[in-house]
């Protein structure tokens, strides 16, 4: 492929593929001739209390979906391939990891940036596509790629949602029918904040309260509903200027869901 001068697109995933992942494949095809999709449930980005052992694994269906979507290469290593005995190197990004997910999952981004650096090293020059569903992850990887001068173009692709608005996520499989209905409160909160922003509301506390109200009603607990700078991820105070990220993490039973919208840029 390299000898023929073909451009590579890279889509890193943890498998349990859904239409959100496949939309990244289609985006990658716009930038590349051949697309590689990686499937690796990366232990380094899960805390001991998190869902590593029960994370959905649907390898055969994933391969079939890749084939249908015209993925040229699937890379699905074992844990011991990526972390052999003696493994001692980690990549840690400061700056945008200090907020939001970084507060509630303190080891998480170090695991993500380490594995993504390894995948970028294996892939070489490419365009890598990440979902804005994990907005902060996308921004952290952009920062890392720029800081380390990696030969990768990082592209962020919009969140794919179900008809009712629920963001597609491998973790939605954990939800009962009742929880799935209550989960819509997140997009309800994001839509309410988007509508108020469109009507001219710019006060950060008001916008956060509007987003939070339906989520507080429906969810068992909230990690955060935050209004932050859409580039640096620093929490905003006072007034929003042109655009701002509203990011949410909340729990239904043992399932933790995240979602976000950039006010002034998109509507969920
Ligand atoms: P995951 O397998 O959940 O680690 O996700 C792999 C990639 O797919 C990440 O870049 C995610 O942001 C992206 N992704 C997951 N869900 C969605 C979605 N609903 N829409 C767009 N991208 C998504």
Number of helices: 8
Q: Please give the radius of gyration in angstroms.
A: 19 Å
Low-confidence stretches: none
Structural class: alpha/beta
Arithmetic mean of pLDDT = 97
Give the N-terminus to C-terminus distance in angstroms.
Answer: 38 Å
With strands numbered from the N-terminus, the spatial order across the biggest sheet is 3-2-1-4-5
Bound ligand species: adenosine monophosphate
Helix content range of the residues, please?
25-40%
* Global outline: globular
Q: How would a crystallographer describe the biggest sheet?
A: 5 strands, parallel
What is the succession of H and E elements? EHEHEHHHEHEHHEEE
- Beta strand %: 15-25%
Q: How many β-strands, per DSSP?
A: 8
Protein described:
By secondary structure, the protein is of the alpha/beta class. It is built from eight helices and eight strands. The strands form two sheets. It has a five-stranded parallel β-sheet, sandwiched between helices. Strands 6-7-8 form a three-stranded antiparallel β-sheet, covered by helices on one side. Helix 5 (108-123) crosses helix 6 (135-147) and helix 7 packs antiparallel against helix 8 (204-218). The longest helix has 22 residues, at 177-198. The chain starts with 7 loop residues before the first strand and ends in a 5-residue tail after the last strand. Bound molecules: adenosine monophosphate (AMP). Adenosine monophosphate binds next to helix 1 and strand 4.
């Amino acid at each position: 492929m390299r000898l023929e001068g073909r451009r590579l697109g890279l889509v890193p995933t943890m498998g349990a593929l859904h239409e959100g992942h496949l939309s990244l494949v289609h985006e990658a095809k716009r930038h590349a001739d051949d697309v590689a999709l990686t499937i690796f449930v990366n232990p380094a980005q899960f805390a001991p209390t998190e869902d590593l052992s029960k994370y959905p694994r649907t390898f055969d269906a994933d391969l079939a979906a890749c084939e249908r979507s015209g993925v040229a290469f699937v890379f699905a290593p074992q844990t011991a391939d990526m972390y052999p005995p003696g493994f001692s190197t980690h990549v840690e990004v400061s700056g945008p990891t200090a907020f939001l997910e970084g507060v509630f999952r303190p080891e998480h981004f170090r695991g993500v940036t380490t594995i993504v650096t390894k995948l970028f090293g294996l892939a070489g020059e490419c365009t890598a596509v990440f979902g804005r569903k994990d907005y902060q992850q996308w921004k952290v990887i952009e920062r890392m790629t720029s800081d380390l001068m990696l030969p990768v173009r990082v592209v962020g692709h919009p969140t794919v949602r179900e008809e009712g608005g629920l963001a597609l996520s491998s973790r939605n499989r954990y939800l009962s029918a009742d929880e799935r209905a209550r989960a819509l409160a997140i997009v309800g909160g994001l839509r309410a904040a988007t509508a108020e922003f469109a009507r001219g509301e710019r006060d950060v506390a008001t916008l956060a309260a509007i987003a939070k109200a339906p989520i507080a009603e429906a969810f068992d607990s909230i990690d955060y509903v935050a209004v932050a700078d859409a580039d640096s991820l620093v929490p905003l105070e006072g007034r929003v200027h042109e655009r701002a990220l509203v990011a949410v993490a909340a729990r239904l039973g043992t399932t933790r869901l995240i979602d976000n919208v950039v006010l002034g840029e998109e509507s969920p």
